[in-house]
């Protein structure tokens, strides 16, 4: 199966265009692509920043929901990460996999998100950026 980078999906959608064919996005176009996805066995993950975006993505036929953008949009930048409440609501309300992503820094946080029932989790910066890891150790020593 193919995995399409989320940045590939976001750029056209900011312009109101379909991420597969670059036509103006409409709900009937979503139905066409939902069938296209099944035919070619593509899986589409919606990078969401809040519940409303996740609900719309589910209604449009996305295969899984990610909390990737929570805390990164203008209207969610005040959310504490990881956004446990959002993860819990998505797991509870939608019958498709929820991918926990964003702000998972410790093994304890990772266990907590799995305890909420997410399908899987992404731990990125916490293990892939040595400068960020070092800053956290220095901050802990100075406090």
What does this structure look like?
With 143 residues, this protein is of the alpha/beta class. Helix content is 48%, strand content 9%. The chain contains 7 helices and 4 strands. The chain is elongated, with a radius of gyration of 17 Å. The termini are far apart.
Helix and strand arrangement:
Blueprint: H1 6-14, H2 27-40, E1 45-47, H3 51-60, E2 64-66, H4 84-93, E3 98-101, H5 107-115, E4 120-122, H6 125-128, H7 130-142
Parallel strand pairs: 1-2, 2-3, 3-4
Describe the structure concisely.
This protein is an alpha/beta fold and 143 residues long.
Note poorly predicted spans: 1-12
- Assess the beta-strand content as a share of residues: 5-15%
Rg is: 17 Å
Strand order of the largest sheet: 1-2-3-4
Number of helices: 7
Helix content: 40-55%
Distance between the termini: 47 Å
Give the beta-strand count. 4
Features:
single chain; 143 residues; alpha/beta; 4-stranded parallel sheet; 7 helices; 4 strands
